[in-house]
Design brief:
There is one protein chain. The chain is mainly alpha-helical. It is about 70% helix and about 0% strand. The protein is built from 2 helices and no strands. The protein is elongated and about 65 Å long. The N and C termini lie far apart (about 55 Å). About 0% of the residues are buried.
Amino acid sequence: MEISLAQRFEIERFNRVIDETEDIESLRKITKKLLHAWQLQKSATIWAYRESLPKIHINTTENEN
């Protein structure tokens, strides 16, 4: 899987912010935001995958004869 050019620029932007940050508290905040964003993306990916699967409908009522 490849990332887009826009995503590469975003990565570079974050890399520069991290590299330029000397304050440990700022680095903690950045790290927590990135971790949160990563987990949100992971949840969205899992949801999208599950939504793309065919739905299986099981009839739970017994046949009335």
